[in-house]
Amino acid sequence: MKKYEVYYIEDDADIACTVKEYLEHRDFHVSVFSAIAAAKKALDMRLPSVVLIDWNMPDGNGRSLCRWIRSRWRELPVIFLTVRGDTSDIVTGFENGADDYVVKPFELEVLYSRICALLRRSGNVSERYLSCGPISIDQERMMVFCEEEEVSMSQAEYHLLLLLLQNKGKTVTRERLLSQIWDSNGNYVNDNTLTVTMKRLREKLKRPSCLKTVRSFGYRMEEME
To answer: 93 and 63 in contact (C-beta within 8 Å)?
Structure first.
């Protein structure tokens, strides 16, 4: 299994194919997106270890995408790829949170070394975040975000959401939720406690469609098409 995942936002199919082939021979998994909209959708579903962004895209530029990424995942590594004439814009783009940039045409070894250096500094940030639809958790800071806004949570609400996100795509039974969130502390609670906590959680998260009730069984976090 490959350790690091790269999202590469690039509309030039030849360049994208060359970079993808090179990096995958060096134990990366690379997903290529030819439009910013497609990249945003993928990022909402799963975070990579690093994002490579071509500065000029058919549906926008790298600066706007980087700003959007930083509003959600502050530490996710981002590298801009640009032609020499855009370099001044790229430097300005660092104000929006990019970590590095590489000028086209570039040597593949140079790009690889920049990625590795960035990952050594930042670690695999993707393991820190869990997300589903508009909801994300920063596990290190124990913070919850919904539609880019931080949401204040009680301890029970946070751990309920965390357990569901850790099991995204799977139904978690009411019994398991009760035992892992409450009974693990030696505190017996009745079934209604979970119902009330879930109701408060849903209200705080603006009743997200990705949080499903499996009647008479439990709950499930599920990505929506």
So the answer is: yes
Specify the pTM. 0.74
Is 2.60.120.260 the CATH classification of the domain at 129-221?
Answer: no
Closest CA to 42 of 29, 57, 32, 55: 32
Residue 132 phi, psi dihedral angles, 5° rounding: -160, 120
Tokens of 219: 């709950």
Half-sphere exposure of 170 (CA within 13 A, CB side): 10
CA-to-CA distance for 193 and 196, rounded, in angstroms? 5
Q: Please say whether the dihedral angle defined by the alpha carbons of residues 54, 90, 104 and 3, taken in this order, is positive or negative.
A: negative
- The class level of CATH for 4-126 reads alpha beta
Q: Where are the domains of the chain?
A: 4-126, 129-221
Amino acid at 83: V
What is the residue-level pLDDT of the chain in tens, covering all 225 positions?
457 999 999 999 999 999 999 999 999 999 999 999 999 989 988 899 999 999 888 888 888 899 899 888 888 999 998 875 555 555 555 555 788 989 888 999 999 999 999 999 887 788 888 988 889 899 988 999 998 789 999 999 999 999 999 999 999 999 999 988 887 655 667 788 999 999 999 999 999 999 999 998 999 999 876
